[in-house]
Amino acid sequence: MTTEAAAPPPPLLPARSPAPARRADPGRPSGSDFAALSRTVADAGLLRRRPLYYTVRFALVGASAGACAAGVVALGDSWAQLLLAVPLAVVFGQIALLAHDLAHKQVFSTRGPSEFWGLIVANLFLGMSYGWWMNKHNRHHANPNHEEKDPDVAPDILVWSKRQARVARGIPRFIGKHQSRLFFPLLTLEGWNLSVNSIRALGRPTTKHPVLEGTLLAAHFAVYFGGIFAALPAGKAIALIVLHQALFGVYLGCVFAPNHKGMAMLTNEDDLDFLRRQVLTSRNVKGGPFVDVLMGGLNYQIEHHLFPSMPTPALRKAQLLTERHCAGLGIPYHQTGLLASHREALRHMRAVGEPLREDA
How far, in Å, are 167, 263, 315, 321 from residue 311 at the CA level? Predict the structure, then answer.
């Protein structure tokens, strides 16, 4: 069953999944509902690596980054530099998406090259700890939208369920009252948030290569800040950095927020198998090639969660197979347009903040 943009969205906070629950099955036996889909996808050749695609994609992102750097030098002491904040934000977002694909072994099938280039792309080019982000993101993939286990819905700043809202204290309680209005302003800080959390993670035992990651991060910040301050007076340099980071944060939020926000929230009481856990908590975003490039393939979020190592160009074909498979099993499969996905997410944030507004 496909939910189109014009149809009403799925329930924001269902007490139980609308589909029949199956026991979680980490082993995914050959007779499971997911295994049947997995065989179909594998037989279609959708899991094989796509070296030419990623070679071209890396080259285009690299060339775009070089063009932005050349633009900063060419414009010199001019407020026109602020116009470069837009392409710079897009380039940084695309670098983040490449780091994401490397972490999921979409580019290389083995761990060594994936980790090596992941450290280069994430730490050196982006200024984000590859190890910290990978640890966090793997926990998200294992339990998406799970209130106790998914770090992406932890009530650190925002609240994602009415249950979280009722027990919220401090900053989440203060912000949660009006979080749907504050969401996009808060996204302007997301770029800084990634960098701060990356630096903090260097001292944690979960970081396997703290010296290497710290060195690469230091090199990134030296080139990023040093290059901009060398090309511009202090005032213009600060303005460019602040605007660039703000737009970068908003771009990242617009890529990642539509994927799960407003979909089913799970707790330990929900006993779902792998297929249903991933499908019911994810949303696909339609929009054609433009949205595919803008979101780096993450608009096929359902398929990405079911097959994390699937290369980006295969996701479109996998979407048709997955939707058909879910329809045969009676599993709700939700996809909508880009703007509609944000409306659903904001509607969800406003709804779950209601207990805080009632107590005000």
Answer: 41, 25, 7, 16
